Amino acid sequence: MTTATTHLALVPRDGFFAKDGRGWHTSASGRGHGLDWPWPSTVLGALRSLWGRGEEARSNTTFGPEDWRSRTQSIRLERTLVLRRKHGATWRAEDATWPVPLDALWLDGRSEVHRADPVKPTAPTLGRDDDEAREALWRPVLDNASKPIASPRWWSREEFTSWLAGKSVSSRDEARTTTRRLQVHVGIRPEELTSDDGVLFSHDVVETLDPGGEWALGVEVALPAGGLSNVATLGSDSRLARVEPLPTTLFEPPVRVLEAFRSSSPGLRLVAVSPVCFEKGWLPDGLVKTNGEYRGQLAGLDLEVILHAALVPRAIHVSGWDMAKGEPKPTSRMVPPGAVYFFERADGTPFSEADAQALWLGALGTRTDEGFGRVVPGVWCPARNKP
Questions:
Q1: Could you say which of 76, 232, 234, 340 would form a disulfide bridge with 222 (CB–CB 3.0 to 4.6 Å)?
Q2: Which fold would CATH assign to domain 253-380?
Q3: Buried/exposed 103-112: b ≥16 CB within 10 Å, e otherwise
Q4: 187 DSSP β-pair partners
Q5: Rounded Cα–Cα distance for residues 62 and 241 (Å)
Q6: Domain 3-96+176-251 falls under CATH 3.30.70
Q7: Domain ranges, ordered by start, for the chain
Q8: Using an 8 Å Cβ cutoff, are 282 and 315 in contact?
Q9: In angstroms, how far is the first alpha carbon of the chain from the final one?
Q10: Which of 155, 166, 75 is nearest to 381 (CA)?
Q11: Can you tell me whether residue 297 is helix, strand or coil?
Q12: Is residue 339 scored above 60 in pLDDT?
């Protein structure tokens, strides 16, 4: 089936609830726990439902489970964005919002965010010494005894592009953040007008509207022909989201980042902006151990690179529910958004503007047709003169 790429914004009108992998009967019985932002696979499911319901109306039929699988199989979620704009404004490139990378540290008493650049190790790790390439990876070292403090979840486009371009970022007090509320559901027995304990449960709702603006999901999706409704449903309880067209300029690399690479960058920092699914856990696909180093090629780059450092938090477990099959999807361990990888070219030459263009919102790993695996590049100057 022929598809065409479309750029859309899904704007939740009453927040959203994207349930995580925990069951309803955990330590908080009858309580559902939600994610702070939907997985790309959840967004893909919403887009398949949006197109499929329109197709049902156009063909005057009702899809069965097999129809939903076959008719929506060609729909692919490509690049995604987190968006935030002021009320009543049109979408601009400045509305893109990004996960704060793990190499950005907030330190007590500092007016600027500390850049946790890795350096060559001077001591082994406390883990099993069974992988010389892993033990040789560089690690960041603080230059003083300042106390780390909590970092925000999201950065504006200005802050994020400054960081990728190698510039300083102010550690301001204001931070972009969403809020949560608890939604309680109660069932009523009509014959008795009493509560039904079997339908008494609660769950998180992430609010997407506040006095300062509204949050939305920007998507680049390959869809078959056919018009779309201007209302979609999103998340575990199918809350409504308005569907709006989105300018393609929001998905283009910022000029500031390209200019930084144009000035020559000896190293590359690669930031995950969506969950990434690698076959070997934290290690990017295409890299193998060679003479005590991780070497290989990254998707999108026709050159050999050397991995020098990897700042990767604890793995996340991504699951979901297959609506067509009526069963849970397999659980995948993934690298969380915000993880940072540091590379140099094996031939010693700097990374170019063309390399940055190829990697901007590029796809690494598996499940990339579901929107996973998106990364963005930043400049890096390896420190070799001191530990």
A1: 76
A2: Immunoglobulin-like (2.60.40)
A3: bbbbbeeeee
A4: 196
A5: 23
A6: yes
A7: 3-96+176-251, 253-380
A8: yes
A9: 56
A10: 166
A11: coil
A12: yes
